């Protein structure tokens, strides 16, 4: 069978979710679901048709442009996807447990305020979880003819994910930033830029209505040193029973070069919308997903300074939230990033990079 491979490298943990909340592997269905979500949003932005998969009327030959490639009832997906993880971990005496073998990361951060659980107000834990393999291969096997336009759209989808967005699940909480190492999909056209997409607002996500930002956080010390000084905020001082886990911060920075601050970023921007209902609509609440996505801080490339990380923030531009974030992140971030205000000066600057 013909095979086209895309090799990706995670910059923040990848998560495709499963019922047991274990994450030792990348599930094909999780990757396909994420690719499809971006592909649909791109197709809509380009003026094509993409149904709402949760309420689709597409069936058999009567289907939208997205179902044409990804399938629907009575119309099979045009390709099969296999995901292979390149772990490259040397199993020796140093490796003590399974988590290290599988490159699993797990970090817990407390909530800023108490939340109601079964009528009791409690501080809760927010988890960063996922795997950080050295790289992963996404292998596309065409099962039926895929048109040149469809290859181009799929390529564009991957380009947008790797340059502006994220792949997989938990992407509103830091996960899924990837870099494409190599891409062997057949394609011919240069990638679409976000500016080329239409701005016609729709109910369903369409990329022309999105904002896509990257910010750089530049500290005035080596990040490892700051982690060892325990300057970052991890929990409220009233949160009894919280167990410090600085070693996991050290481990993920040392080994994977990301700083687990997605919740800090979320906490810095959430209250930019004052109206509670609108805030829940934009940032999500129990049972409703966020329409704003943020990444952890990740090192831009291997050779860049040990003082600087990049953070992605993107999403539907509802209630002008995009420009509020752009204007205000810099003012708000310090108080959320550090545990004490005397540490605020460790952040040299936070600046908009795209
Ligand atoms: Zn459809």
Please name the defining characteristics of this protein.
4-stranded antiparallel sheet, globular, alpha+beta, binds zinc ion, 14 strands, 354 residues
Written description of the protein model:
- This protein is of the alpha+beta class and about 350 residues long.
- It has one domain (about 5-350).
- Helices cover about 25% and strands about 25% of the residues.
- It is built from 9 helices and 14 strands.
- It has helices spanning about 30-45, 65-70, 100, 150-165, 225-230, 245-255, 260-270, 275-285, 320-335, and strands at about 5-10, 80-85, 105-110, 115, 120, 125-130, 135-140, 180-185, 210-220, 260, 290-295, 295-300, 310-315, 345-350.
- It has a 4-stranded antiparallel beta sheet with strand order 2-7-1-8, covered by helices on one side. A 4-stranded antiparallel beta sheet has the order 11-13-9-14, with helices on one face.
- Helix 1 (about 30-45) packs across helix 4 and helix 7 (about 260-270) packs across helix 9 (about 320-335).
- The longest helix is centred in the N-terminal third of the chain and has 18 residues, at about 30-45.
- Bound molecules: zinc ion (ZN).
- Zinc ion binds near residues 56, 58, 63, 64 and 67.
């Amino acid at each position: 069978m013909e095979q086209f491979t895309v090799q990706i490298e995670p910059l923040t943990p990848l998560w495709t979710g499963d019922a047991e909340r274990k994450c030792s592997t990348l599930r094909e269905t999780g990757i396909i679901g994420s690719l499809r979500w971006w592909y649909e949003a791109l197709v809509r932005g380009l003026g094509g048709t993409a149904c709402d998969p949760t309420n689709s009327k597409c069936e058999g030959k009567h289907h939208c442009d997205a179902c044409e490639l990804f399938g629907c009832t009575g119309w099979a997906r045009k390709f099969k996807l296999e995901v292979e993880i390149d772990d490259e971990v040397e199993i020796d005496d140093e490796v003590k447990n399974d988590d290290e073998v599988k490159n699993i990361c797990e970090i817990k951060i407390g909530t800023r305020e108490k939340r109601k659980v079964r009528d009791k107000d409690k501080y809760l834990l927010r988890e960063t979880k996922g795997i950080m393999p050295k790289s992963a291969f996404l292998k596309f096997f065409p099962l039926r003819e895929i048109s040149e336009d469809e290859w181009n759209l799929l390529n564009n989808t991957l380009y947008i994910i790797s340059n502006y967005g994220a792949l997989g699940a938990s992407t509103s909480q830091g996960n899924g930033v990837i870099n494409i190492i190599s891409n062997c999909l057949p394609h011919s056209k240069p990638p679409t830029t976000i500016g080329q997409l239409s701005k016609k607002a729709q109910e369903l996500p369409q990329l022309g209505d999105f904002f896509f930002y990257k910010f750089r956080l530049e500290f005035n010390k080596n990040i490892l040193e700051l982690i060892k000084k325990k300057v970052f905020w991890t929990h409220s001082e009233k949160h009894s029973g919280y167990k410090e886990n600085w070693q996991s911060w050290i481990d993920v920075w040392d080994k994977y070069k990301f700083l687990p601050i997605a919740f800090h970023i979320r906490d810095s921007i959430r209250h930019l919308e004052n109206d509670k209902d609108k805030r829940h609509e934009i940032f999500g609440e129990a049972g409703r997903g966020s329409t704003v996505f943020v990444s952890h801080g990740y090192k831009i490339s291997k050779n860049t300074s040990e003082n600087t990380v990049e953070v992605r923030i993107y999403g539907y531009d509802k209630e002008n939230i995009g420009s509020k974030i752009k204007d205000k992140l810099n003012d708000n971030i310090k108080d959320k990033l550090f545990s004490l205000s005397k540490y605020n000066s460790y952040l040299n600057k936070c600046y908009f990079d795209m």
